[in-house]
Amino acid sequence: MKIEDLIAQIHQKKSFLCVGLDTDLDKIPEHLLKEEDPIFAFNKAIIDATHPYCVAYKPNIAFYEAYGLEGWKSLERTMAYLNANHPEMFTIADAKRGDIGNTSTRYAKAFFETMDFDSITIAPYMGKDSVEPFLEFEGRHTILLALTSNQGAFDFQTKNVDGQELYKEVLSVSKTYKGAERLMYVVGATKASYLEDIREIVPESFLLVPGVGAQGGSLQEVCKYGITKDIGLLVNSSRGILYASTGLDFAETAAKKAQEIQQEMQIELSKIK
Ligand SMILES: O=C(O)c1cc(=O)[nH]c(=O)n1[C@@H]1O[C@H](COP(=O)(O)O)[C@@H](O)[C@H]1O
To answer: CA 39, CA 52: separation in Å to the nearest integer?
Structure first.
C-alpha cells in the first residue's frame, strides 16, 4: 500500500487507530472455543465490529506461532479475510524479525509475499544488511524498532553511542539505507516526551506507536509531540480493545472502545493546521 492511500484513509475515517490482533485463547470469550477455528472466529468478529474506526490491523505473530500449525492457519485465514474484505486496511506483521541478509530476504518473502502483509516490524540490532532486504519490496513498509514501550528500553536504547542515544543513532543511520523511503519506526506511547527529539531526526516518517490502553500511554501526549501535517502516526491498542468484554457482547464492546479512541483522534486531527 502507498503511504498516500494510508493518509487518505486516515482523513476519511478521522482515525489513525491500529487494532492489535493479539488473540489469546486464554482470554477470548468461552463460547468461541466451540468454533472450528476460535482464533479466526474471534478476529473476524473483531474486524467486522471495529473496521469503521481504524485504519490498520496488527496481528502479533507470537500469538499465532504459540499454537503451532493451527495458529499459522488462523493467521492465514485472518489475512485472507482482511485482504478480501478490507483491502484498504494497512496490515502490520508484528514479527520483530531481522537476520543476515540471506535470511532476512526469506522473512521478507514470508510476510510480504506468502502472507501479503503491507508491513513488518524489524529489530535494527543486526544493522544495514539485515534491514535492506526488507526495503527492496515496492509498496511494502519496514517498521524499525527505535524506542520501545517497555522498561527494558532503558537497558540499551537510551545509552550513549557516538555522542548520541542509541535510538537516535538507529533513526539517523537507517535514513541512509537504500529504500529508506519505505521505513517507518516504532516509538512506544509510554515514551511520548521523546517524540519531540525524534521528530527532529525523522520529521515526516510514519511512527507506529503502541502502548496506549493496557500499558498506560497517553494519546494526547503522543499527538502533542509526534503528530505531523500528514499525521505521521499509527497508534496501536490491543488488549484495551480486544478484551474490553469477554462476554457475548465482546465485539460490540470492542467497537465501542475503538470508537472512543477514534473520537479522541478526531479531536487531535482537527488541531492540525
Ligand atoms: O512492535 C510493537 O508493536 C510493540 C513495540 C513496543 O515497543 N511495545 C509494544 O507493546 N509493542 C506491541 O504492541 C502491542 C501492545 O499491546 P497492548 O499493550 O495490549 O495494547 C503488543 O503486540 C506488543 O508486542
So the answer is: 21
Residue 144 has pLDDT above 90, yes or no: yes
Ligand 1: distance of its center to the CA of 226 in Å? 18
Q: For the full predicted model, state whether its pTM sits above 0.90.
A: yes
Tens digits of per-residue pLDDT, 190-243?
999 999 999 999 999 999 999 998 899 999 999 999 999 999 999 999 999 999
119 lines ligand 1 (CB under 6 A): no
23 touches ligand 1 (CB under 6 Å)? no
211 lines ligand 1 (CB under 6 A): yes
Q: How far is the CA of 36 from the centre of ligand 1 (A)?
A: 28
User: Could you tell me the CATH number of the domain that includes residue 193?
Assistant: 3.20.20.70
Angle at 258 between CA 255 and CA 263, to 5 degrees: 120
Number of domains in the chain: 1
Q: Which residues are catalytic?
A: 96
Domain that holds residue 126: 3-270
- Distance, in Å, from the CA atom of 93 to the CA atom of 115, rounded to the nearest integer, reads 9
Q: Report ipTM for this prediction.
A: 0.99
Q: Cell 473476524 identifies what position?
A: 44
